[in-house]
Specification:
Structural class: alpha/beta
Strand content: 5-15%
Strand order of the largest sheet: 3-6-7
Number of helices: 7
Oligomer: single chain
Helix content: 40-55%
Number of strands: 9
Length: 223
Amino acid sequence: MINKRFLGGAALVVAFIMTLTGCAKTESNSDKQESNTATVEVKDIHGTVKVPVNPKNVVALDNRTFETLADWKIKLAAAPKGLLTEESPYMKDDSVKDIGDHKEPKLEVIASVNPDVVIVGQRFGSYYEDIKKLVPNAAVVDLSFDVSGEKGAPGESLLNGLKDSTTVIGQIFNKNDEAKKLIADFDKSIKNVKDSYNGKDTIMSVVVSGGEIGYSAPGKGRV
């Protein structure tokens, strides 16, 4: 006849083993989930930043990237709507919270959306450290300037910066082929302009922005 005390002890041992097995499975699933979260290292003005690929919660502050992000159907949690054109899908989307512009930004809005990634642009570059403190768990990427490491004339730095920014957001959102095509088209358009100039004619340069045409620093350009 089996001792009841023995059966009770055996039951406790089995329960304990099952509990340990359950914990092991939970930890294993958690580890598996973490390992499946792809990341990529991108280069910004401050160095190298590890960023999740295809982040779900994105804040974009760089006005040079809005149109590309919109074309790629990237959903934004917040953006400085004062820098957007009326035609921008982000302007029309009420779910995209307004951070204001760089002169009087509402940085607390960034914290409120708990972003995975914040893309900082030149106009918001001075708030980089403040943003990092507000969202310590987010990857903050600063695309303020030329990050290629090449030194050159201001115009060359501007062009490199635009291309580098496109490369970086292509890496973040797994749009590398699309980014390469944009850069190739950009280089081709520059070549077409250079080839069409005879080196003698006087040129008037204008800026087209938000449906308006105007001068940019007439007589003394910034680039």
